[in-house]
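Entry, Tuesday afternoon. Goal for today is a structural model of the target with pyridoxal-5'-phosphate bound, before we commit to ordering more compound. Inputs were pasted exactly as handed over by J.K., no edits. I checked the ligand SMILES twice against the vendor sheet because last time a stereocentre got dropped in transcription.
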Amino acid sequence: MALKAADTHGGNIHAVAMELGRRASSLLDFSASINPLGPSSKVRRLLAREAEGLIRHYPDPECGNLRRALASRWRLSPRHFVIGNGSIELIHLLPRVLQCRSALIVGPTFSEYGAALSLAGAQAQLLSARKRDGYRPPLDKAGKWIQSAARRAQGASAVFLCNPNSPTGQACEPGDLEELVRQAGQSGVWMILDETFMEYCESLSLLPVLHRYPRLIVLRSFTKFYGLPGLRIGYGVCAPSLAEVLRRHQPPWSVNGYAQAAAETAMNDRPYVRRSLAFMEAERERVSMRLSGIPGLRVFPSRANFLLLELPDLHQASGVAAVLRQQGLLVRDCSRVPGLTTRSIRVAIRTEPENDRMVVALRRLLGTGRDR
Ligand SMILES: Cc1ncc(COP(=O)(O)O)c(C=O)c1O
């Protein structure tokens, strides 16, 4: 199946503000999954203090300090890292640099993998997890695709897999995923693992074993967990020879100085990391329980900072999202995500009072379910 990029993303608060004739600050955006605690206070102080120098000079085109900090964090060499203007820059760069001819996307998932592959002229096939399996990623079927790709041997092939996955919130067990990565390596297939939400369940990451697999590319972001969407910064980790080629294909200075400085400070702010994790674990559980009290609303378990919901029968995601939008509450309508249903929406976990507003609005809209 050829994939079309979905034409909407979460987080377009500016367009909605314009449409509603309201200020963006009066809207509550549950459509982009960003750390509700905001950026680390150390980042705010650093950016205020260093503004003059960061604005007056070109940024380091090699992102040297950040690559060294990441290397020390992950016990790898700075040569393993490529920093991007958001991980999205790398998602779009990879299919072109790898000269992908065919690819498997394990879905339902982020639309940009399909968009990037299509722009690079690759044929993408979607392998969808099934609702009746709770959207557990079908790794056994992905393994079969890898074997058949190796037999076809027509140019480079790649598998895109998001772990934990957006918008389903499902995560793969590291042992099972490592087995798939091993198979891909043996078959000469690239494995592109998007770990954009992995900070919320770090023990499942494959970064600690990345050095064993030259065909494995792991993508990370400072957007979600570190709450820096506006600065645009993410990174890829892979074999040094590939990282070097990727860096050569980037435009010079694609990552600005604010972003580089903020990322390094954020990742080293351990109390902020601990606070963010503890908050999310408790609040996700609380919101999930409250939403589960709405009759007919299905709440899928999640390892990230959002929840996938399936609305009760007779409700459509597009209609519910539109009504909530009028109330200033933005949710992600997932009805056009291939592999999901017309009743699927994704909501980010925000602060406690904000989440309560969302729960109350949904309860009013969907029926008379008793609050728990
Ligand atoms: C799964 C996933 N990967 C990657 C990205 C891109 O993130 P960024 O470019 O901000 O790092 C997003 C953004 O929404 C995403 O949802």
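The radius of gyration is 20 Å.
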